[in-house]
Specification:
There is one protein chain. The chain is an alpha/beta fold and 462 residues long. It folds into 2 domains: 134 residues, no CATH class; 320 residues, Alpha-Beta Barrel (TIM Barrel).
């Protein structure tokens, strides 16, 4: 795509011609430019343009908008979060014994996939192996054979999961952590280089298994490329050689969408956690990763409270209007069961997506810049969807002008709404008597929306 340049004026983005080439931006510049609350992980990863996917290859992911993250593994037996081994300093030998108890009696990947599909999700990402080193598949490359096939379960859960995803029409994503707490070389890579290299060999062997044995892998979601619990993922690139690693991935799966957490810059950026999203439209592909529960842990904790429905919808909408995807995490228990309260909330979200998904799927954020806590917009072809979070405040506003003629203005799920075009913008008359988490107004135009993004900038970690 031809390089474009933009600036913000009067609440919407306008094209600015004949500007010098874009440069790398620091994370601080991003926050300053967009006045954004985003906290991107792994800024400053190794650059290698030959690895990045193009717009056409990334389109399905950007159109999908919504996915399910699943943190599940040996730590689910303990119910104290996926970091229990490290946080509680459980000895390796003691922790590995848990494999003898890992026999999830109610694991059903098809039920997971059905719940994701019913929630309106288009892709899933499963923790194939977390930092504790326990692998959910039959992995010859696993150090000391620490796998589900060698556990009490004697099952390849990655195989069952990938088949279930495809059966439900969902894109397949796998999470993989190259680091492993069982290796002293992780904690002291310079002092124990041979052990660190043994951990690296395990990572290369296992990534190759995942991308070569289970059919097409649509998303590879790394986590944990840092070393010794210091710095960020790019700081461990000297050991992991992420360009080499991901060249291998591309050899088997050329179109896999890869996140930035291996130390390579990746195909998209990640904002992690339950903090709210504010600020302007993000001019790069990005994804918000958060838990449907309290966020104390990604893995299962008993009786962890679930997000309120209104809060969940508002969080998601605040991402969509800023042109991002949402990867919403659930933590199944030791038996493989997603907690009932979380499942019920997902079903409610699915009902909302069924009714209002037109304003989300296959849209892009814009053309109006969001006004925090009040409104934002998405668009597709000749339709603009106004997502109004505070109708009372919105009623006081005038939208910036647009060049197209407005043929229709109305609630997405209801009647026409009066509007007036003035010399300075668009005034919409809206009632705020019955507040919803997101009131959606659609503007039908006589011509398609003309709105592009700067997508070839990169952010450093400075």
């Amino acid at each position: 795509m031809r390089e474009q340049h933009y600036y913000v004026k009067a609440g919407y983005v306008m094209k600015k011609e004949n500007q010098p080439e874009l440069r790398e931006m620091t994370g601080a510049e991003l926050k300053s430019m967009l006045k954004s609350s985003i906290q991107f992980k792994s800024l400053g990863g190794v650059k290698h343009s030959g690895l990045k996917l193009g717009d056409a290859e990334l389109k399905w992911w950007r159109d999908a908008k919504f996915g399910m993250f699943i943190h599940w593994g040996l730590y689910s037996i303990l119910g104290r979060g996926e970091w229990a081994m490290q946080n509680e300093q459980i000895p390796v030998e003691e922790y590995e014994k848990l494999a003898g108890e890992f026999a999830p009696g109610h694991f059903d990947a098809e039920q997971w996939a059905k719940l994701a599909r019913d929630a309106g999700m288009k892709y899933m990402v499963l923790t194939a192996r977390h930092h504790d080193g326990f692998s959910l598949w039959d992995s010859p490359g696993s150090y000391r054979g620490f796998t589900s096939m060698n556990s009490a379960a004697k099952r390849d859960f990655v195989d069952e999961y990938t088949e279930a995803c495809r059966g439900a029409g969902l894109k397949v994503g796998l999470y993989y952590s190259p680091m492993d707490w069982r290796f002293p070389g992780y904690f002291k890579p310079h002092e124990l280089p041979e052990n660190a290299l043994l951990m690296k060999k395990q990572a290369y062997d296992q990534v190759e298994e995942l991308v070569s044995r289970y059919g097409k892998i649509d998303i590879l979601w790394y986590d944990g490329a840092w070393l010794a619990h210091q710095g960020g993922d790019p700081d461990g690139a000297w050991l992991w050689e992420p360009v080499k690693l991901n060249r291998m991935v591309r050899k088997y799966n050329p179109g896999t969408v890869i996140n930035p957490r291996s130390g390579w810059e990746g195909d998209f950026y990640c904002d992690e956690g339950s903090h709210e999203i504010t600020g302007g439209i993000i001019p790069v592909p990005w994804e918000k990763n958060l838990c449907i529960c309290s966020g104390r842990s990604w893995g299962w904790i008993p009786d962890d409270p679930v997000m309120l429905f209104d809060a969940a919808i508002r969080m998601m909408v605040n991402v969509f209007i800023r042109d991002g995807n949402v990867l919403l995490n659930v933590g199944p228990d030791k038996d493989g069961v997603i907690p009932e309260a979380a499942a019920e909330r997902l079903k409610e979200i699915g009902e909302w997506m069924e009714q209002f998904g037109e304003s989300v799927y296959s849209t892009r954020g814009g053309p109006f810049q969001p006004l925090d806590h009040v409104y934002g917009s998405t668009y597709a072809e000749n339709r603009i969807y106004l997502h109004i979070l505070d109708c009372k405040e919105f009623a006081k506003l005038e939208l910036p002008p647009i060049p197209q003629k407005i043929n229709h203005c109305g609630l997405l799920d209801g009647d026409c709404i009066p509007f007036v075009r003035t010399a300075t913008g668009i005034k919409i008359t809206i009632s705020h008597e019955a507040e919803k988490p997101d009131t959606i107004i659609v503007l039908e135009l006589d011509e398609p929306v003309e709105f592009d993004f700067v997508e070839n900038i990169t952010f450093t970690g400075k």
